[in-house]
Fold this sequence. Notes:
The complex is a heterodimer of chains A (about 200) and B (about 120).
Chain A: H1 2-13, H2 34-49, H3 58-65, H4 72-76, H5 91-96, E1 107-111, H6 114-127, H7 129-139, E2 141-147, E3 153-157, E4 170-174, E5 176-183, E6 192-199
Antiparallel strand pairs in A: 1-3, 2-5, 3-4, 5-6
Helix pairs in contact in A: 1-2, 2-7
Chain B: H1 8-18, H2 22-34, H3 40-51, H4 56-70, H5 77-85, H6 95-117
Helix pairs in contact in B: 2-4, 3-6, 4-6, 5-6
Amino acid sequence: MAEAHEAVARIAEHGRATPDGGAGPRDHGPAPQPDDVALAEVMRRREQLGDEPPRFNIAANDDAYGYLDAHTDDRHGPGIPLPRVPGRKTVEGRIHGDWPWHKPENWSFRWSDPSTMNRTVNDYVERNWDRIRDDLALDGGHDGTFDAGHRVGQGYYNDGMFGVGPRNSHYAETSYVKIRIRLVPDSDPAESYILTTFPLGIM
Amino acid sequence: MDISRLPEPMRARVEARNALSSLDRVREFLGSHVLDADSLDEVRADLRRTAHFSTMRHRGDLAALEAVAAEQHAPGTLARLVGWEANWVLDDPSDAGAAQFLRELAQLLREVIDDAER
């Protein structure tokens, strides 16, 4: 933490060190180099994200950031029926590319229930906030895969792997999770949201 | 960006990613941007949003995609990587089809980087 503060202060208050060893105030020193500007932006975003991990409610998150493709509930929400039903959006139907899915997939899972979904996401964010914050500040995104240690969702997989052979679907349950967190472009102060999070059919 | 000036945890993360084999780096890229996407337009939109902040990671990912698409791999490696791990069902699910898909992703990523750095 001290190192981060020090880096911010160094970049914000001084230009790059000059060949003769000077590093005067920005107004009087050399113009900042592109590297300095990029580094200062990274450290500024990191500071803005803060020490305290945010808490997420997936339904509210998807409502607020749907315009940025937030889609957990839409594709993996616990309200999506599991077994394939003609003419309805189902978890199993995604294996086959049934309407309204846009393409077939080899595995398709949903969250078991809203409380498991929100608790699992917030537990992960709280435990890994330092790393998440660094990734968001540096790259604008964080991607994580983890074992929640208990069942988080259920769904189907196609054992005609890679689409070879007739498509089929088999029911399975999982404790593994994928999460993608992103920064809102142009947010100042930096603001994070869940792009998507879903139970993983494979590891 | 001069990564040597980043605080230690950040620098270590960048160095660890840069030390990945091309295949593992592509695996990570697919898991971050392709898995669960409904279309290549959605992949492009996510890449553009993250490129808004930095293209450093994207440039490394592009080099890995180009390398993996050009290299020889054990039979089934690329088909499994794309069809199973990235969960992307191709009309041609063979290794050759998967290599072509990776080349298309490389081109898409190249365009995103060019736009961001213009």
